[in-house]
Specification:
29% of the residues lie in helices and 26% in strands. By secondary structure, it is α/β, with parallel strands linked by helices. The chain folds into two domains: 137 residues, Medium-chain alcohol dehydrogenases, catalytic domain (Quinone Oxidoreductase, Chain A, domain 1, Alpha-Beta Complex), CATH 3.90.180.10; 143 residues, 3-Layer(aba) Sandwich (Rossmann fold). Helix 2 crosses helix 3. The longest helix has 21 residues. It is globular, with a radius of gyration of 20 Å.
Length: 329
């Protein structure tokens, strides 16, 4: 089998992807070489591809999470060895490839109960859920939260994690089919359809009070709607703009006493201690069944098709890229 790397020649659409053959590099001091078994995709990858979040230089390799096998270790690495099952997530980007040299401190050993596919589809999303529900706000017994795109990769984990904390979850989804999925993840109430009056429905479901926390990765005008669905002194969290840029939010929308947060999992992961704490919390959650459903798998060379389907919202759940596996012997 041939190893491949997906290069992004410049910011833009999927035609800027170039599939090239790859030769494994040798790990240096404090580094390991990982042979990827599964590469995770996230909407962040689309922001990187388009240049909404620019990369340092081009051509570039995008992708911020993957799982596989340690193939070689560099000098000074004592906690990992050849053959270990591992995963990683977070900066720097560079996961769309068959093999990758990466800092050993970024690598998390996987327990037997967590497969490479599960880790690649869920690690960054579960780390994000940990950051949002435990650090950005304090969701717990009795909390009422609003989760947009509740059948998606991140949404499904947010629903499951919030339910494990005994919260009540109101989810939004675009279709009845996605509503059935979100219900199976534990959502208590579903608001279905892109034209639904979300604010009115939330107020109806909460006896006019609103939710304690609203988590919005849709963007565009959804952030203002989310703020209006939040109770006084509650919080709206913006984590993405899948539907387009977010217009300026008038400060008057924060009355009375509402707060708005814009956390970044990539910024969170830039600190090694915080990164490893979040990653280990995510692994524990995955062992407990808090995972993202895998909606589709593509070969690594089909990254452009995977992006097109992800951007169009055609897939419910996470999308994986699967490199060709090297034949043994």
């Amino acid at each position: 089998m041939t190893d491949h790397i997906i290069l992004l020649s410049a910011p833009g659409d999927v035609t800027h992807f170039q599939v090239q053959e790859q030769r494994p590099d040798s790990p240096g001091q404090g580094e390991v070489l990982i042979r990827h078994q599964a590469v995770g995709t996230n909407f962040l990858d689309i922001y990187h591809r388009k240049g909404i979040y620019p990369l340092p230089s081009y051509p570039a390799v995008i992708g911020v999470e993957a799982a596989g096998i340690v193939e070689a270790v560099g000098a000074g690495v004592v906690d990992l060895q050849q053959g270990d099952r591992v995963a990683y997530a977070g900066p720097p980007a560079g996961a769309y490839c068959s093999t990758r040299v990466i800092a050993a401190e970024s690598v998390i050993r996987l327990p037997d109960a967590v497969s490479a596919r599960t880790a690649a589809s869920s690690l960054l999303k579960a780390m994000t859920a940990y950051m949002l529900l435990s650090k950005t706000c304090d969701v717990g017994d009795g909390s009422v939260i609003l989760v947009h795109a509740a059948a998606g990769g991140l949404g499904s984990i947010l629903v499951r994690w919030a339910k494990s904390l005994n919260a009540t979850v109101i989810g939004t989804v675009s279709t009845p089919e996605k509503a059935a999925l979100a219900k199976s993840y534990g959502a208590d109430h579903l608001i279905v359809g892109r034209s639904a009056d979300i604010v009115a429905e939330v107020k109806r479901l909460t006896d006019g009070q609103g939710v304690d926390v609203a988590i919005d990765g849709i963007g565009a005008d959804m952030l203002v709607k989310s703020l209006r669905a939040v109770r006084p002194f509650g919080m709206a969290i913006t984590i993405g703009q899948a539907a387009g840029p977010i217009p300026p939010v008038p400060v008057e929308e924060l009355r009375p006493g509402k707060s708005l947060s814009h956390p970044s999992i990539m910024a969170w992961c830039a600190d090694t201690g915080r990164y490893r704490a979040a990653a280990h919390a995510a692994i524990r959650a995955m062992e407990a069944g808090i995972v993202s459903q895998i909606g589709a798998e593509y070969s690594l060379k089909e990254a452009a098709k995977a992006h097109a389907d992800m951007e169009a919202g055609r897939i419910a759940g996470s999308i994986l890229l699967i490199p060709e596996m090297k034949r043994q012997g």
